[in-house]
RNA sequence: GCGGGUGUAGCUCAGUUGGUUAGAGCGCCAGAUUGUGAUUCUGGAUGUCGUCGGUUCGAAUCCGAUCACUCGCCCCA
């Protein structure tokens, strides 16, 4: 309705906020590169099937939380709600399954039709890493360590706790799921309305319920541990051992579950208490079943994604950008000279800003506002002498410098 | 999708039991040396009181709807 208001759940990212985003992305990219994860990206929209098939048409996610529409060519299109499905699709489309294992880093906007809250938007941004074609516990350790390193490097490691769980292998999961359904069916009357619905759709999620009655029942619910196969238990033990070797602290959270069948083994989330209900800052897990489900070869994979907005809320103020030199011409001769001087200085690597209007006072005010380090004043007086006035804006000291020496004399102000 | 809170200047907010000209700080603009910023001093402008409708002699204030933000639930790929 009010056209001058951004659409619900979207926001402008103005320079101050953008610097925070940039800091998150740049830090993550650098550290991911150290682990051998190469940056790539996929389209912001895909055929709807890419996302709906692995998730299931009947789920809330697909039926009411995706930005899905028909384009002018009558194709069913969906704005990507996550990175993983698109990346797996790209791996298959490009025949990259020849080159496993693949290690990717990506970042970009995601779209989910949800009710906005703090740190939760309809257009939001994620960083994402995927390790495709590696199925050993060591690869789980690597990808978690990568996440931990990034969080530490962003200075938020102290306020995030790594929660860890296993979803076992298919055999373990089916046995556990059956046991849960049996157990909760016997306690059906005590369950909340939401959980009775979950009983059909997604019994594991009951374990995660916030309803007080459900929590009481959960206390007696069967534990996954007793249903794990030896192989699954061994896998999890190796993951934990690896984390311990690397000194990465974690807390086992048996209620940390995933709803979809292609997930297995390791599930993890780095959680903070500083963001209210939207406390998960980075989450991921192993998805060995997805590649095959999407029509590719049967390749194991693991990955995680982290919300840039949430991380941006947690990090300290990023370092200020480099301070510019303010070019301040007075009069027509000065304007003409300023253009060529500014160009030459920029080619030489200086940051140079010019206001383009106002008298000297006004331009000095502008120079101050943009935190310029120095001002180069080009008036008729000094131009007649082939010189410019250079003012140190921190000390107020001011000297006249021959134009030929300008570059050298400005060097201390870079 | 469900429930609670909030919406007043560019920003952060104050506005008494409905009462006539709606305020503060910061910021912005102008001036205090017609070629010198940041400090200081003086002056100025801020505004459909989110929007629409209702109650009333009279609404920023009460009621309803709607939009947005926010807290929790649902969902969380």
What do you see in this structure?
With 414 residues, the chain is α+β, with helices and mostly antiparallel strands. 38% of the residues lie in helices and 21% in strands. An 8-stranded mixed beta sheet has the order 1-5-6-11-10-9-7-8, with helices on both faces. The protein has a 5-stranded mixed beta sheet with strand order 13-12-14-15-16, sandwiched between helices. It has a 3-stranded antiparallel beta sheet with strand order 2-4-3, covered by helices on one side. Strand 9 and strand 10 form a beta hairpin. The two termini are 48 Å apart. 35% of the residues are buried. The protein binds one RNA strand of 77 nucleotides through residues 1-2, 5-6, 8, 51, 54-55, 59-62, 64-66, 81-82, 84-85, 112, 114-118, 120, 194, 205, 210-211, 258-260, 276-278, 280, 283, 305, 326, 328, 330, 359-369, 372, 375, 377, 379-381, 389, 391, 393-394, 396, 398.
